[in-house]
Amino acid sequence: MRSFYTGQPGTRGRPPEETSAWRSLSRESSPAGEASRSEAAAADGEAPQEEPLSAISPAAWDAVREGMRQMAADSDVLSWLSVETAGKTGTAQQNPSRPNHALFIGFGPYEAPEIAAATRIAYGYSSSNAVEVTADIFRYYFGLESRESLVTGEAEPAGSNGNIVAD
C-alpha cells in the first residue's frame, strides 16, 4: 500500500484517489451537497441505480466551502480578482532534503462555479507560488487579463510581491 503524509509529520494515510471520502468529493453533487454514485448493475441485468452518498453532511460541506471562500478573500493575490473565488492551499514534503511541493485547489465564481483548478508545482517551495499560477488561470478564464500580458508578466496585480499565502 502506498502512503502519504497530510498536514503534520507522522499522520499517515492512503493516497486520496484510494479513499472513499475523496471519491465522494470528486463526484457530482446535488444542490443540497449530496453526492451520488452509480451502483453496479444488479444480477438481473437492470440498469445501475443512483444511490446518494451521505459521507458529508450539507452543513459540513457548507463549512468547507465557506472556509475556502474566506481563504481566497484573505489572499493578497485572489482578493484582487473581480470574481469571488474559493480555494485551499497546501504543501507536501516528499524528501526532507528538497523543497516542498506547492499545492492549491480552487474554483470560481463562488456562488455559481464555472471553473475549478488544481495546481501542483513540484518542489515549488510555498503554496503561494501555486496560488499565483492559479490566479493567472482565473484571470485569463474570466477575461480579466489577456494571454499576452500574462505570458510577458505585465499582468502582475497591484500589491503582489510573491510568497503572500502562508502555509
Automatic annotation (TrEMBL):
<dbReference type="GO" id="GO:0005886">
    <property type="term" value="C:plasma membrane"/>
</dbReference>
<feature type="domain" description="Penicillin-binding protein transpeptidase">
    <location>
        <begin position="47"/>
        <end position="137"/>
    </location>
</feature>
<protein>
    <recommendedName>
        <fullName>Penicillin-binding protein transpeptidase domain-containing protein</fullName>
    </recommendedName>
</protein>
<dbReference type="GO" id="GO:0071555">
    <property type="term" value="P:cell wall organization"/>
</dbReference>
<dbReference type="GO" id="GO:0071972">
    <property type="term" value="F:peptidoglycan L,D-transpeptidase activity"/>
</dbReference>
<feature type="compositionally biased region" description="Low complexity">
    <location>
        <begin position="27"/>
        <end position="46"/>
    </location>
</feature>
<dbReference type="InterPro" id="IPR012338">
    <property type="entry name" value="Beta-lactam/transpept-like"/>
</dbReference>
<dbReference type="InterPro" id="IPR001460">
    <property type="entry name" value="PCN-bd_Tpept"/>
</dbReference>
<dbReference type="Pfam" id="PF00905">
    <property type="entry name" value="Transpeptidase"/>
</dbReference>
<dbReference type="GO" id="GO:0008658">
    <property type="term" value="F:penicillin binding"/>
</dbReference>
<dbReference type="InterPro" id="IPR050515">
    <property type="entry name" value="Beta-lactam/transpept"/>
</dbReference>
<feature type="region of interest" description="Disordered">
    <location>
        <begin position="1"/>
        <end position="55"/>
    </location>
</feature>
